[in-house]
Specification:
The chain is mainly α. It contains four helices and two strands, in the order αααβαβ. Helix content is 59%, strand content 6%. Strand 1, helix 4 and strand 2 form a beta-alpha-beta unit. 31% of the residues are buried.
Length: 68
């Protein structure tokens, strides 16, 4: 599943994703658009999704993340 699909399934805005992950809204938007992101940012996103879904989601399981 893509980051956008995860986010929409949760009913989150990009701002909410950023808040939950502890990253900037710009970083969340960039990640969702497929821009290259740092591994720490990818982990923060995956951790936020893991908490929301109540199961482990690893960065490499999010289809469209382009991790540096």
């Amino acid at each position: 599943m893509t980051l956008r699909q995860y986010r929409l399934e949760l009913g989150w805005t990009t701002a909410r994703l950023a808040q939950e992950a502890g990253i900037t809204r710009q970083a969340a938007t960039s990640a969702e658009r497929g821009s290259t992101i740092l591994a720490d940012t990818a982990k923060a996103i995956a951790d936020a999704l893991s908490r929301a879904y109540g199961r482990a989601i690893k960065p490499w399981e999010i289809e469209d993340l382009n991790i540096l």
